[in-house]
Design a protein that fits this description.
2 copies of one chain form a homodimer. By secondary structure, chain A is α/β, with parallel strands linked by helices. Helix content of chain A is 31%, strand content 24%.
């Protein structure tokens, strides 16, 4: 069990829960994937988790997202271990080999401070999840923060939930973490743990 | 943040998650409640968490449950800090004062190895939750393991979910943790955190 000082227990935001779970599983030298780079905060977080001997692969279809992320990583001095690809996360399997990845993070929806009509879509998100599953090492995890507020979000959330409800329970366990007493529909966190 | 070595991260059983969350919040000297003593395993766990200066209040309507629990606590040498009541958890408010309790654990359903037709019921469970909420100190938590398999279980689960979805979000945050990819409906864990 690694240091857990940094991330609050029972944090309000499910993105913090996602980071917390990742932090418990990733060690220096591991390979991780940020399937939805966005403004790069999860990429930066993963780059810290894997240390100088590890690798992080990041994907985004928006060049502006990759530019912002590159800038953030340069400022933090962590670009050396990060490989950014201007490609859809649905193709992530072509860049990585099976059973090599310790964590894959998805943060669905639109690019914050970007074009809110450019959103992740059910079909490509499911393709990306299908591609990510065989990449996981034993004790590896996938985290998916799925939104329900923007147009098209509920459809994607439902697709992800149905897909993850049906994956092999002899190899993977899928947890769903939800905040109940909120007026607006908050995001939901899915955590896939390859336990065997 | 306290020692977290003992409880596995992403454990298969949601009762272990419940214990994990409680362990993160309870310190020596705290007052805790086992609202559904059963065979006493959560009572014993809470008695360890609160230390010799703490107190644990346990409730059950079945005398056999209380007898088993007392035996377990004597064997562990921890009966000194535990107060057992042969009463429904719906009355727990009469034994405790507001804003004094750090954790309340509920494990609903029937007594394992007991009479499976004697089950917790929606009305009394909701009354018990209503009684437990004002008892919580700031940063206190309630954990509820709710089943969906036995006759009457789904009705109770739905009642608990609806009730917890409507509690004051300015004071309490309610998390719901669910395992998705299982053939049989597994239990669900609700965690209520008084954050203010």
């Amino acid at each position: 069990m690694k240091n857990m000082e940094k991330i609050e227990i029972l944090p309000q935001r499910l993105v913090s829960w996602a980071k917390w779970f990742v932090k418990q599983h990733v060690s220096h030298g591991d390979i991780c994937v940020d399937a939805t780079v966005g403004n790069g905060f999860d990429t930066l977080f993963l780059a810290e988790c894997v240390g100088s001997e590890g690798k992080v692969y990041g994907f985004d279809i928006q060049q502006s997202a990759l530019n912002n992320t590159k800038k953030l990583l340069i400022e933090a001095g962590l670009l050396d271990r990060v490989y950014l690809f201007h490609d859809s996360h649905s193709h992530l399997g072509t860049y990585l080999s099976n059973s090599t990845v310790k964590a894959v993070m998805f943060n669905l929806g639109y690019l914050p401070r970007g074009d809110h009509t450019l959103i992740t879509k059910p079909e490509t998100t499911i393709q990306a999840l299908k591609a990510a599953l065989p990449l996981l090492t034993t004790n590896g995890i996938i985290t998916v923060v799925s939104y329900r507020g923007h147009p098209g979000a509920i459809e994607e959330y439902n697709s992800v939930k149905v897909f993850l409800s049906e994956i092999n329970s002899k190899k993977y366990r899928v947890f769903c973490i939800d905040i109940l007493n909120q007026e607006h529909l908050p995001p939901v966190l899915f955590v896939v743990h390859r336990y065997r």
